[in-house]
C-alpha cells in the first residue's frame, strides 16, 4: 500500500495532545465515472479515500463540480523515463498520469522507491533490466547510444546485470531472475525479436540489436518467473513473437507487431491472424499496443496521413480489430514519457475504438498495473486519486487532455504550466 493521505493536526484540550483528523470534501454537481460511463452524482472524500457522501461530517468542504467530468487518474503501462525527481513526477501528474510501469531501466534502488512512495509523487513499478541474449535488444541501444548520450561513456560491462541480463540457457535465465528478484524488480521484461529467424540471426553480426531470446527457452523463462512471483511483459516485433509469448503464458505484450515505422516489405511478418488472436485471448495476455508511436512519422505538419504509412495504419487497424473481437484486453502505454492522450486518440482516429471505448481503456489500465490497490474506481473505499475534466471524453476523446483539477490521495496537486502534447 502506498501511503497515508494528508491529515490536519488538531490539538486536543486534554494535555495538548495532537490527533489526526482526516480532511473531508464533497465534490457536488459533477458527472462521476462508474466504470461503464458517467452519472450525475456527488463524490465525497475523507483523507485519502472516497466515502459514502451520507457519512460526511457537517464541516466538510464543498467544491462545486458543476459542468465537470470526474474520472480516475490515468496510467501509462509502458514508459521508460521515470527518474526519482519532482520534475519527472510533475511531467506525469500534470498530464493526469499517476501510475506507471517502466519495462526496462537502470536498477532502481531503495532511495528511489522511497521517493515514489510519497503522497505527492507518481507511482512506478519497474522491471529493472530486461532479459535478452548477447547482442540482442536492448544491448546495442545502451552500449552504442545511451552510453554516450546519457551514461557518461560507461563501458559495456557496466550495463550487463544492470540495464540488461543475458538468458541464453535455463541456468542463465535462473541466475538473471534471481538477481532481478534481489534487485527488487516488480515484473520481468523479456525480449523476443524476429524469433522465427532466431537461428539465422543468432551468430550473424548484422543481427546485432535485431534479435532476442531463443524461443525454445521462452516457456521456461515464463514458468521460472512466475515461480518467483514475477509477471512477464514481452517486447515483440513479429506475429511469431506474439505466438511464442502467448503460448508460453506471458502476461503482457509490451508492444504489438506493427507498432514502429516498419519497412512495407516487413509488414507481412507483423500480421495477426484470427487463430493467433484466439490464442492470445485464451492465454489471458493483456496487450499494450503502443501503436501511437507511429504518429510522429505517419502524419505531415498539416495532420494528413503520409501515403507511405497507409499500409501500416491498415495493419494496425486489422490487428487490433481481431484482438478486440477475440476479447483481448487493451491497455494504454506510450513507450515514452508522460501524456497518454496521443495513444488513445490514435486508436480512435484509425477506427478501432470509439471515444467511449478508448476512454474505458485509459481508465481501466491503472487497476491492472496495480491490482492490489483500489484505484481506477470512484466508489466508497477506493483511493482518492481522480481528475476533473472540462468535457466528456466518451463523446470527444481529446477531452482527456482538458484537465481542470488533479486530486492525489485526497489532496489537490499544483501544476506546472506546459503544453500537453
From TrEMBL:
Keyword Signal tagged: yes
Residues annotated as signal peptide: 1-19
Protein species of origin: Brevundimonas balnearis
Pfam families the UniProt entry points to: Amidohydro_1
Gene3D superfamilies (alphabetical): Metal-dependent hydrolases, Urease, subunit C, domain 1
Taxonomic placement: Bacteria, Pseudomonadati, Pseudomonadota, Alphaproteobacteria, Caulobacterales
PANTHER family linked: ALPHA-D-RIBOSE 1-METHYLPHOSPHONATE 5-TRIPHOSPHATE DIPHOSPHATASE (PTHR43135)
InterPro entries, sorted: Amidohydro-rel, Metal-dep_hydrolase_composite, Metal_Hydrolase, Metallo-dep_Hydrolase
Keywords: Signal
Keyword Signal: yes
Positions of the Amidohydrolase-related domain: 212-402
UniProt-recorded name of the protein: Amidohydrolase family protein
Amino acid at each position: 500500500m502506498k501511503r497515508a493521505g494528508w491529515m490536519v493536526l488538531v490539538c486536543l484540550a486534554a494535555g495538548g495532545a495532537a490527533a489526526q483528523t482526516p480532511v473531508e470534501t464533497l465534490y457536488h454537481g459533477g458527472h462521476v465515472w462508474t466504470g461503464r460511463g458517467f452519472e450525475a452524482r456527488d463524490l465525497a472524500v475523507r483523507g485519502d479515500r472516497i466515502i459514502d457522501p451520507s457519512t460526511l461530517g457537517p464541516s466538510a468542504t464543498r467544491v462545486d463540480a458543476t459542468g465537470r467530468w470526474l474520472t480516475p487518474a490515468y496510467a501509462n503501462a509502458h514508459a521508460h523515463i521515470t527518474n526519482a525527481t519532482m520534475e519527472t513526477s510533475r511531467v506525469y501528474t500534470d498530464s493526469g498520469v499517476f501510475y506507471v510501469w517502466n519495462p526496462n531501466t537502470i536498477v532502481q534502488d531503495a532511495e528511489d522507491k522511497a521517493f515514489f512512495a510519497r503522497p505527492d509523487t507518481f507511482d512506478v513499478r519497474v522491471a529493472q533490466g530486461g532479459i535478452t541474449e548477447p547482442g540482442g535488444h536492448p544491448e546495442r541501444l545502451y552500449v552504442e547510444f545511451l552510453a554516450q548520450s546519457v551514461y557518461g561513456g560507461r563501458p559495456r560491462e557496466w550495463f550487463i546485470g544492470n540495464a540488461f541480463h543475458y538468458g541464453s540457457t535455463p541456468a542463465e535465465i535462473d541466475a538473471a531472475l534471481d538477481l532481478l528478484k534481489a534487485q527488487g524488480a516488480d515484473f520481468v521484461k523479456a525480449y523476443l525479436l524476429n524469433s522465427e529467424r532466431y537461428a539465422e540471426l543468432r551468430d550473424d553480426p548484422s543481427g546485432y540489436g535485431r534479435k532476442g531470446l531463443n524461443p525454445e527457452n521462452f516457456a521456461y523463462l515464463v514458468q521460472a518467473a512466475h515461480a518467483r512471483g514475477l509477471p512477464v511483459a514481452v517486447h515483440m516485433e513479429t506475429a511469431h513473437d506474439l505466438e511464442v509469448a502467448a503460448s508460453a503464458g506471458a502476461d503482457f505484450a509490451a508492444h504489438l507487431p506493427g507498432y514502429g515505422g516498419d519497412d512495407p516489405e516487413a509488414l507481412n511478418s507483423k500480421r495477426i491472424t484470427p487463430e493467433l488472436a484466439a490464442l492470445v485471448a485464451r492465454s489471458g495476455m493483456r496487450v499494450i499496443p503502443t501503436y501511437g508511436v507511429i504518429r510522429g512519422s505517419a502524419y505531415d505538419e498539416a495532420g494528413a496521413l503520409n501515403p507511405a504509412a497507409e499500409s501500416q495504419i491498415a495493419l494496425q487497424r486489422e490487428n487490433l480489430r481481431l484482438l478486440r473481437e477475440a476479447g483481448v484486453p487493451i491497455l494504454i502505454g506510450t513507450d515514452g514519457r508522460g501524456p497518454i492522450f496521443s495513444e488513445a486518440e490514435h486508436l480512435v482516429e484509425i477506427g478501432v475504438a470509439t471515444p467511449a471505448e478508448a476512454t474505458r481503456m485509459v481508465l481501466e489500465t491503472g487497476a491492472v498495473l496495480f491490482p492490489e490497490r483500489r484505484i481506477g474506481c470512484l466508489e466508497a473505499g477506493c483511493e482518492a486519486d481522480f481528475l476533473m475534466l472540462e468535457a466528456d471524453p466518451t463523446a470527444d476523446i481529446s477531452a482527456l487532455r482538458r484537465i481542470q483539477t488533479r486530486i492525489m490521495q485526497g489532496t489537490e496537486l499544483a501544476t506546472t504550466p506546459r503544453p500537453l502534447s
